[in-house]
Design goal:
single chain; 352 residues; alpha+beta; 7-stranded antiparallel β-sheet
């Protein structure tokens, strides 16, 4: 009886953790839907303070999506969340641009300047509260804050055709009317600081996926990095062409690395010392099931099967039962997670 109760508690814990991850995935797709889901599951309360602390303390959220959520100027609730989110920062004694840097480590600023302005308005209020002797009117500081974000983008993040345009010079930066109310010496220092060192957002799960995607040769990496995508595990294994082979050489002739994400299984082939990888297969996890097999030389086999037509999409083999167990557990849990996310997205009318 005790063992049965322990098992039940374990299953409740597993389901609770899964619901939490589903909420993260939904937030990293459509933030409002993710917050709504987490409230319904009892993970957070429907209060600005609870949401603000969740955004500040949870490191599995996309910094891009945090910025988009907090920049919703039309939402009174989000405005209150933003105000409380900023209460988590202590800007006392910091130079204005260094305080902006500290803020940007926790979120990626939205592309739309109207959203950036909304965030900067609240940021300036918090900055002045931490530094009561700050010179300059709040409106001017908001404009300077926006200018710093624009300057950082202009110098460090422009790409493509835009890189051919003239970079913003120090003279241009200082001559902007929005900077005239503040000390020119300070503004020169700000310009040099941003030019020398870009404003950097903390590494999140998206950064990890982007690094993997960058190692792929060809164009297969283009759609891999996405805000909702998390790396679950990397696993060395073999792709099986013929499960009944009697040749040891053939059985180990297709070494692969499985990149398991929360929504995809990507099979790649490492190409050598450079760390580059050749894309072999990408398999979405929704609607799949996992089978184990033993046949011929394969004692730790795994087959991934599509439920609707029972088609075997790929057969894989691992070296040990321990490797097989861990890979299958991670894979199966990711499949369950995707099924739960699909149901939640359908209930939220994200999909039909």
């Amino acid at each position: 009886t005790r063992a049965l109760e322990q098992f039940r508690q374990l299953m409740v814990e597993v389901e609770t953790k899964r619901q939490f991850r589903v909420g993260l995935n939904l937030f990293n797709t459509v933030p409002d839907v993710g917050i709504d889901y987490l409230v319904k599951q009892g993970v957070i309360e429907l209060s600005p303070l609870s949401v603000a602390k969740f955004l500040y303390n949870n490191h599995s959220l996309s910094k891009l999506k945090i910025g988009q959520y907090l920049g919703q100027s039309e939402s009174a609730f989000c405005a209150k969340v933003l105000s409380l989110f900023l209460q988590e920062f202590d800007f006392a004694g910091l130079r204005f641009d260094k305080a902006v840097r500290q803020l940007v480590t926790h979120l990626k600023m939205p592309e739309k300047m109207v959203k950036v302005e909304k965030i900067m308005e609240m940021f300036v209020k918090r900055f002045i509260k931490c530094n009561p002797k700050t010179e300059g009117q709040p409106e001017s500081l908001v404009k300077v804050g926006c200018s710093i974000i624009q300057l950082n983008s202009d110098i460090h993040t422009r790409s493509g055709a835009k890189t051919q345009a003239k970079k913003l010079t120090e003279k241009d930066f200082l001559s902007q009317s929005l900077c005239q109310e503040l000390d020119g010496k300070l503004l020169k220092t700000v310009y040099k600081s941003v030019k020398k060192k870009p404003l950097v957002t903390e590494v999140d799960h998206c950064s990890q996926v982007q690094l993997l995607a960058a190692s792929l040769t060809g164009s297969a990496h283009a759609q891999l990095a996405a805000p909702h995508r998390r790396l679950v595990c990397l696993c060395s294994l073999y792709q099986v062409r013929n499960i009944n082979t009697a040749s040891e050489a053939e059985a180990r002739s297709h070494p692969r690395v499985a990149w398991l994400f929360n929504d995809l299984l990507v099979i790649v082939k490492q190409t050598g010392k450079s760390g580059a990888a050749v894309h072999k297969e990408t398999i979405p996890l929704l609607g799949l099931e996992v089978r184990l097999f033993k046949a011929g030389l394969y004692r730790c086999g795994v087959q991934i099967v599509r439920k609707r037509d029972r088609e075997i999409l790929v057969s894989l083999s691992l070296d040990t039962e321990q490797d097989q167990y861990k890979f299958v557990m991670d894979l199966q849990e990711s499949i369950f997670e995707m099924e739960a996310m699909h149901r939640a997205a359908r209930e939220a009318n994200m999909i039909k």
